[in-house]
């Protein structure tokens, strides 16, 4: 399956991969909150945040191509959210040469920028921590157990379920000719059938769990150790995000440069 | 040791949809026996198996595991004694990593971490799957999944192993490895299967179910050589017990 290839990256051994999942979770959250909290015309001020994915991808030795491909999958969502802004917001806020650029286009660019930043942060988190690590971290940080379990099971059976759906769809298309057999009604019945199968499977899994002494609590034998280096990682990045949020770093840098030259 | 005994008396079960699966099944399996439960599709094999570790509670009749009659109160003890290996390893392996799955049972038994770790390693070594310890189950091959599923039950050190179609979906080599593995076990083993050739290798005794009743119960060889029994329960003689009609045809033609 395609989705799991990202998860596979989490088995690599790099300084980033060795960090405690909680450290990466916290940093990712701080990053996302910081990026999202800018006002809607923010563009240049967002630039310093590019540093985070760039550093993690480099140190974590992640394949850029794989990550970009995953990001492209989500692009349409952000694109259609943002694309109407230039139509509604036509006030010219800036001129490059003789071309006036409206606020709409700036906010559209800002949405795309924020989208790329947050999605890449999320993908990087999965690629360096793995779904299981994330769930373990969430649980240790006090997320409701039930929720974490749901997430774990969802991830575990996603592949089984997509395989099942794929087989059903293949079976249908093999016996469908021309447009016959592809009606919406058939699709509805197949979905129902898939739901029934899922319930059956859930029942069997529950039986298998009960057979091995399940009493409502899932116990995991994997101690996590939050070490000084994890604290440094979280504190360092968070401080950087906060600074970049409060101060307009590119602006300050530019001013500094100008003063330096002068 | 009486706790390895499985005794089923006049067991009856009807599914909620009205489908009667068992009409009075009785047998007694003693310590260290390996028993095959065979029969046509829908003969009641799976329903019977689900009763052996309390996934289903008897409606009428009784199931005794060792010194305990199976009921809601003894469920915990029975599940500790009887290790159940399901037909589809994907149902059995629900944890994120192989290691977690094999540790699931022992952790639920409340064993200390070192003991759990020891048992996980031992169980995986027994089925020859130590190298799979840190892999997610959905990335394993069918044979690997089956081995790990068996390890996940062995780690609880059950006295009795119950298996539903253990050789289904395995390639010939995987099937052979499984048979060899099963032959090394000293547990009481109960296997529901259609693979009668495997039964010849692994099980000394065979129980034939037919429409929810025991049609025959005896030494494997006697039963699998009996054409009448096999015929009336929709089974076929295992290949190794047949006179090779293919060779005969070749000889006659030549």
Can you give me a brief rundown of this structure?
The complex is a heterodimer of chains A (262) and B (254). Chain A is built from eleven helices and two strands, in the order ααααααββααααα.
Alpha-beta content class of chain A: mainly alpha
Estimated structural class of chain B: alpha/beta
> What characterizes the major β-sheet of chain B?
6 strands, mixed
What proportion of the residues of chain B is helical, as a percent range?
A: 25-40%
* Topology, number of strands of chain A: 2
Order of SSEs of chain B: EEEHEEHEHHHHEHEHEEHHH
- SSE run of chain A: HHHHHHEEHHHHH
Please tell me the overall pLDDT of chain B. 90
CATH topology of chain B: Rossmann fold
Strand content of chain B: 15-25%
Summed up, the domain count of chain A is 2
Number of helices of chain B: 11
Mean pLDDT of chain A: 86
- What is the terminal separation of chain A in angstroms? 58 Å
How many strand units of chain B? 10
What does this structure look like?
The complex is a heterodimer of chains A (262) and B (254). The termini of chain A are far apart. Chain A is 71% helix and 3% strand. In chain A, helix 5 crosses helix 7. Chain A has 2 domains: 172 residues, no CATH class; 77 residues, no CATH class. With 262 residues, chain A is mainly α. With 254 residues, chain B is of the alpha/beta class. Chain B has a single domain, classed as 3-Layer(aba) Sandwich (Rossmann fold), CATH 3.40.50. Chain B is built from 11 helices and 10 strands. In chain B, the strands form 2 sheets. In chain B, strands 6-7-8-3-9-10 form a 6-stranded mixed beta sheet, with helices on both faces. A 4-stranded antiparallel beta sheet of chain B has the order 2-1-4-5, covered by helices on one side. In chain B, helix 7 links the parallel strand 7 and strand 8. In chain B, helix 4 crosses helix 5, helix 4 runs parallel beside helix 6 and helix 5 packs across helix 6. The radius of gyration of chain B is 19 Å and the shape is globular. Chain B starts with 5 loop residues before the first strand and ends with a helix. The interface between A and B is medium-sized, with 29 and 37 residues.
